[in-house]
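Hey all, sorry for the wall of text incoming. These are the two entities for the joint prediction.
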Amino acid sequence: MAVEALRPFLQGTSGRNTRGLLRLIILCTIAGAAVASRLFSVIRFESIIHEFDPWFNFRATKYLVQHGFYSFWDWFDDRTWHPLGRVTGGTLYPGLMVTSGAIYHALRILSMPVDIRNICVLLAPGFSGLTAFASYLITSEMSTSPSAGLLAAAFMGITPGYISRSVAGSYDNEAIAIFLLVFTFFLWIKSVKNGSAMWGALTALFYGYMVSAWGGYVFITNLLPLHVFVLICMGRYSPRLYVAYSSWFALGTLASMQVPFVGFLPIRSSEHMSALGVFGLVQLVAFVEFIRQQVPSRQFQTLLRGLIFTVFTVSLGGLVLLTVTGVIAPWSGRFYSLWDTGYAKIHIPIIASVSEHQPTAWPAFFFDLNLLIWLFPAGVYMCFQKLKDEHVFVVIYAVLSSYFAGVMVRLMLTLTPVVCIASAMALSTVLDAYIVAENPSPPPQQNGDANGDASKDIANFFKNSLRSTRKPVYGIYTYLSKVSIVSTLTVYLLLFVLHCTWVTSNAYSSPSVVLASKLPDGSTHIIDDYREAYYWLRQNTPEKAKIMSWWDYGYQIGGMADRPTLVDNNTWNNTHIATVGKAMSSREEVSYPILRQHDVDYVLIVFGGLLGYSGDDINKFLWMVRISEGIWPDEVNERSFFTARGEYRVDDEATPTMKNSLMYKMSYYNYNNLFPAGQAQDRVRGSKLPAVGPELSTLEEAFTSENWIIRIYKVKDLDNVGRDHASAVAFEKGNKKKKTAKRRGARVLRTE
Amino acid sequence: MAPKRSQISSTTTTGVPPIPSSPTTIHTPASSSPSQPPSKSSSATTTRDVLHDLWSRYTATTPQRTKLLDTFMAFLVVVGALQFVYCVVAGNYPFNAFLSGFSATVGQFVLTASLRIQTNPENEGEFGGTISHERAFADFVLGSVILHFFCVNFIN
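and here's what came out:
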């Protein structure tokens, strides 16, 4: 029999080796699957950087590779935020660029020259394999079952919640940050378990790497202290905890301060204060423990509790006091929006305007996590069953990240690892109980190891929970239940794989720079307007030509067209963005001076009306209005863009303010000519446009892409003979001067 | 908090009762340290006795190596306090330098405390299997190297 032949490989030392080898092979396969499932976009489109932010990262990486590390560190970029410029080296998280730069040079040394673009495109899939491995490690720390880690790795590899940010080409900070997050947590668990300063120091090092890679490091900064705090409150303080936390905090804080963008934040901003406070608390507790060892006394227990309480309240009060008096920087706006989802909408429209900062819609949880979303609570329950130090960590992590994922779409990313870990623990417990072929024999001591473990688990699991299961349960006897449960789970898992592949291929693999549409005959049609327009800019405009666009496209213009921009996706200057918003939403007479003052040569807008592309500027227009209204409430008014009935319209009934705004005019300029007279239609908003299209006098159309998605306008120079542009245009058309005079007269009347 | 409170109470008590000379007080509990329970029950009233008891126990039971570590830690506390006082009095102008100097002392203190905890025979059960004294020292060295690397890098 095959089983008999295999027996030597499954027992004893060689059995252990075989299992280790198998585990390695499985992990490699999982990593391969994780990488492979992220390559849809490369196969379907090409090896291209996606979306918006990755274009900046790509550009920065190219700069790093070309100019070396030190000039990257001191990089002042005068081609963005014209005329302000940006101290790029000091205002970015350099981890991602440095990582890919290091890979680039390492491959070069190995005489395998790979284009930096390909490294950037494939970095995220590569790191997803590492993330799967890291989640194997952390789950193995949590659970004794050998299968839990492998399941967690497999889940982590293919869960859409993580794939959404790590497909090939999405070269964003999250690409490496999630690996660092999970691995830092693994090292933390390890250091808490062992109480070793070495693991603590490693945690600090990877924490420092994480700080250099992603702003989400604050999550770790708060989660680890919270873990320690909860453990202390549970009376679980131990010297191991002291060693782990102190070494992590002392080294990690210093490590995080090495990143110029973070700088003194760890001692100034409120987000980091909990770590500092818990550090003080741990010192205090350790000191009290030390005294207690010297003088054994019952009273110390009560003294300890009182002490913790008073110190905690005093330090919290001090923190509040310091924040109020302004010594410590107050919480940042993004942080407030985590607690109050309505906060950003009222106070900081620029944060609310970003789609990934919106609260999560509930189907998104099922969409991104599928089967795991109902295994997840079971896994957390198992953690409560065992509740060792590391399980407390998982519980805290689960609670916090569930909340945060509900508040902000992008934080689904931090929830995904814990969901994978917890559901792997739940699933492996079930599988361990049911998948054993042999019948369990009642005394667990005499069983084979796997069998005994499983039955013990079951016994522990059900102990005290139900009256009928008070007496120890040793396992499952009937083959029927074994086979039915195992086969059901297998079907579920297969469905999960199916779902993941489907979601990845349909929802998360679009570069959003290149669009794909299906023709009626089923063939794919590639819409490449963005690159067409950016390439036009690159070829036909002087190198110093300033391009104004809404900030969404700033990074792409910088990366693909290589032209200076006024605003970009690094939204550090709200006023500057509001200026652009004001120029877009005002009348030409108001906008033109703004354009001249900012040296704008070209204005770029995105218009989806012809194609039905909904992510265009008219749909984003209200955000421009809102943001500029925040700065100039007298000059820009959101209400005047809505009709009397409160509708946002672009057709005949659009308000005069809307019709006269530069954005509206630029979008629909000459659009009528595409259609028979009076038939012009906007396919995004599904409305018929006015019979007479808008007139532009201060701008002239320079370029319109194939499907009209991108339209570029050139800002006219001042008139040669000193007329204003409106009359110049009127003169060109052969109109009499009195028409403009009439218009003027009408305007004067209106202002009276 | 604990030492502060006890100091205050000890100063209040020093005024009232006649103080026995310190060497005798050290000697008597040190000799009677094995008979801990009676002394505890009787001396629970005054914190001063508790302090004496603590000190005597410490001198009696702590190994020489650990005492060395404690001296180092005390030194670090003094250095850190000096830096802090300087920062408060003379301003924090080279803030990088102050921060890295101060964090160097704090970090070194914490690492030394970790070493002390790990090598303390009373914590044998806690670290027993995994961390030997040599391993603890190696950890200490590794942590210190990383710490001082960051400090030097940060000092500007």
